Every structure is written in C-alpha cells, then in structure tokens.
Design the sequence.
C-alpha cells in the first residue's frame, strides 16, 4: 500500500445564492472567521482554523438552478463535524438554502 500524498482538505468552494446570509451562518452559528475574499467575484473565504470554505455568489440567484445529485456532476454535500451546538446558536436546519 502506498502512503497518501494528501494531508486533509485545504478548502472547498461553494456557489451560493445569498453570500451575506451564508457568511453569517458560518460566522455567527458555527464560529468561523472571515479570512478573505474577492469583492469583484463576489466571494468570501471563511475558516475554522483547519479547513477553509470559499463562498461564491452565483451571478443571478433568481435564475440559478438548484443542484440535482441524480442529474448533475458536482459536490453532493459537505458534512461538518460539530462537537456541541449551544441552544442560543441553533436556528432553522437550513437557514440559507444550502
């Protein structure tokens, strides 16, 4: 068996319809930090100190097609491990349409 060359995930990029709402979810609900971004794209980079997620706003949220895992190639889901979610930080299961 050969040893893997990778050492984990550096970052994942997600295209989102509402950049500000998704940024708030990562920062306010999960406690992540904004580490950068490119306003011209527009995009925001958030991190928990180990993994970074690049959030890109789609060009036109009103006409963006939702992902269909049975018909499209792409990221199916991103699962984050959470040790404990304090009750004051809990909200709707899918508050930002991810």
Sequence:
């Amino acid at each position: 068996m050969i040893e893997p060359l990778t050492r984990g995930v550096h970052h994942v990029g997600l295209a989102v319809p509402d950049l500000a709402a998704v940024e708030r979810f990562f920062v306010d609900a999960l406690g992540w930090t904004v580490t950068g971004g490119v306003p011209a794209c527009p995009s925001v980079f958030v991190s928990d100190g180990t993994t970074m997620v690049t959030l890109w706003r789609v060009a036109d949220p009103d006409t963006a097609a939702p992902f269909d895992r049975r018909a499209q190639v792409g990221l199916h889901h991103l699962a984050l491990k959470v040790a404990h979610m304090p009750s004051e930080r809990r909200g709707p299961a899918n508050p930002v349409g991810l």
Q: What stands out?
A: The helical segments are 19-29. The first helix runs from residue 19 to 29. The chain has a mean pLDDT of 87. The CA atoms of residues 28 and 66 lie 25 Å apart.
